[in-house]
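Why this split exists: single-chain examples teach little about how molecules sit against one another. For that reason, every record in the complexes split bundles all components of an assembly together and asks for one structure covering all of them. Below is a record exactly as it appears in the raw files.
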Amino acid sequence: MSPTNISRRGLVASAAALGVGAAASPLLFAAQAQAQAKTVTLLNVSYDPTRELYKEINAAFANYWKGKTGEILDIKQSHGGSGKQARSVIDGLQADVVTLALAGDIDEIAARAKLLPPNWQSRLPNNSTPYTSTIVFLVRKGNPWKIKDWPDLVKPGVGVITPNPKTSGGARWSYLAAYDYGRKHGGDAAAKDYITRLYKNVPVLGAGARDATTTFAQRGLGDVLLSWENEAYLTIDEFGPKFDIVYPSSSILAEPPVALLDKNVDRHKTRTQATGYLNFLYSPLAQDIIGKHHFRPREAAAAAKYAASFKPLALVTIDQAFGGWKKASAVHFADGGLFDQIYKPA
Amino acid sequence: MTDQALLPSSPVPGGAAVVRRPRRSRFVEPSILPGFGLSLGFTLVYLGVIVILPLTALALRPWELGLSGVVHALTAPRVAAALRLSFGLSALAALLNAPLGLLLAWTLSRYQFPGRRILDALVDLPFALPTAVAGIALTAIYAPNGPLGSLLAKVGIKAAYSPLGIFIALVFIGLPFVVRSLQPVLQDLDREVEEAAQTLGANSLQRAVMVVLPALAPSLISGVSLAFARAVGEYGSVVFIAGNLPMKTEIAPLLIVIKLEQYDYAGAAAVGLAMVAISFGSLIAINGLQLFLARRGKA
């Protein structure tokens, strides 16, 4: 600590000597140096639709942490398509924790950058997912196309907006929910046929969930948006009651996991704070914020409080229906996989 | 032409004198400049670090797939379609910018009218705008619910989220390259030559096609090739307006990004290398054309 203080003082002195600052500025510098000495910075690298959620959680946690330890936390957040975010972390983005859309992306970080052990998912309760979500339909007010369930999406003329599953975590969940519906009604062949017809109705493939929401809500393109449940509510909050949410008969239980990046927190000396942050996500306070932002809380009290906005529907998990992310990725989203086969030259 | 340029300016028949900037004297022997070795050395090192080093890294990366892997990656229908789309639309956009850019440059440098300077500054906007901002603005205008997009939709034309949308974005970003390459040449063009042609009985079309255009051709070609090269690599403004559907509206730079996000670094580098090779080939061809025109001009 002391060398930095000295150099800071040196800086202040030279600034004063140069006559750069006004009389108050050396005081300001000193105050800043004091504050910085106690501020710890955490970086949470997350996916697209959690901006608003983590903004509130970060404020709540910083407040809680200050009361508990007296330490001032500056929690930074970064958002984007889940795959892109994972790649940034692999390429060296100094995240302390990652909170991504799918476990597969964190597996990639573990496998390629070795920033955390392969068994990371068993280190926190509920498979390291403090909340769940699902995929629902957002349609235009009054539901002019009478879209009630998955088969309505492949009617000729219906425009379906969903991002590219290659780059968007939410879009992978949407794709799998649709595939699962198709398979329940006629097996794998029917599912392939259904998926192909579904993506024929997709006029634009955005990069991430936000991208797709903007295309649907702001550019007025398409008749139905395959959306994260929370993003659907958020769109209505944001753009007014121009849309209706439709719950299909079945969907997928999306489990967006969180994880500590061991190598990064050890380098930053932030393991205590980062661990506290992830555990905080399971606390009643954070679970309430989670429910408020239309993610499905794990904790019973919060789940009960917000039960009205979470319509019950048949939900399958990726492990039950697709044998886990690894298998699902290889079959559906890898190069030449089922998704690529949809886009064949005419 | 050079001889004539050295003559003192003479009054134009109309009466107004042509004001000409004094020409800088040329160095007959550039080698008398000191420090040739140093500057050449610096040039080589600088180019090496800034250009050749990253390109070498790019060129080395794909081969971890093996030769057949690279060929396989590049001949996949989706990759071929993306390359076709990127290079085809870039060429079309650059070609459209040739006449339009010429017209703009002509208007801006040959006529005096109120607001000329403002228009002149506007030409640079596509340079200055962050490409994402340009893309979002263009999409907002050409989307089916946008001011221009809704009009086009009425006559059955889909602008945004179609190849046409990509074309519009590429025309937008390419325009300043053509205008800015032409303007200085147009300003320096000797009016006496045109006047001489007129006194020799050339009509205005003949003057434009046989006198002015040959003088402009080299810079027009270089402007068009710059616009083309920029358009091929353009990502930011295009992804917003393109629709990004594989085989239809997916540009090659987007395909590279998608491959990167699937952790397919080698595959992404293969597409990148193919783009560099095709661009380089086209630029050499264009340079050849320029050289040919310059030789013909001398003869």
